[in-house]
Predict the structure.
Amino acid sequence: MLKKITVTLDVEDLRPSRAYEDRSKMMTERVLDIFLEMGIRATIFVVGDLARRHPEMIIRASQEGHEIGLHSHKHIPLQLLAPQDFEKELKEAKRFLEETTGQKINGFRAPTMSLTYKTRWAIPILQEAGFTYSSSVLPAKNPLYGWDGTPTYPFRWLNSVIEFPCPITNLFGFNIPYLGGAYFRLFPSLIRKMGIRRASTKEVLWTYCHPWEFDKDEKYYQLDHVGRLTSRIAWIGRSGMENKMRNFLRDTSAASLGDIAESMDLSSLEVVNPESPVAGIEK
Ligand SMILES: [Zn+2]
């Protein structure tokens, strides 16, 4: 049987300065057109600051049946933020999205999977701000981010929100988030099929993509918060992205992360204490 895969889209503006052309609205609308044409209902995590500049694209996404979530206020990785600033901006952005779309905003995705042991202070803040789930952890060792020891299937943070960890698969000894980003764009579909086949039935599988990945005409610039190599990789394979995604979406069908969270029996989820250095599971 085909495993169900939830489609998620992270809507962000990665330009290091406003001197570069803002193509985020145009490209988001392009991706919304594809979703509409293919009958896909996605979870769309939006950067709050960008939503304020282009509220009409978020209203459209909401009206077309997508779940709207928050992808931080300005796409700054959590480790570069002070907890009190994060809290203030998080609550303001959530309120703005709720007022703009009329939807309750339940989901949060940290920029660059930056919810790690180091930034565990963010977890109680998410709960306090009224989120019910997060989708912000890479459950493996990784030089850039990652929280080794956390489960690869949905779990609940102690006294806090549900976490939908990023799907990973092992390739030549590395745990890679194979269902999205550069891994989706640049790796052959064989890797995805292998990872999906290997995934346990406890996992909630989600793919993640970004409107800029579909933009083959954007001029190169160096991205903030990452090295030159990562910046270069962000420009590779964009011309094939739309076809690749269309082919993949034909095989996907799943509820939004918010609907999955809502249908879960919370008492059946494992509870993870973020204070434990290896994110020990509380029995
Ligand atoms: Zn992002």
User: Anything to note?
Assistant: The mean pLDDT is 93. The pocket of zinc ion is lined by residues 10, 12, 71, 75, 111 (CB under 6 Å). The first helix runs from residue 24 to 38.
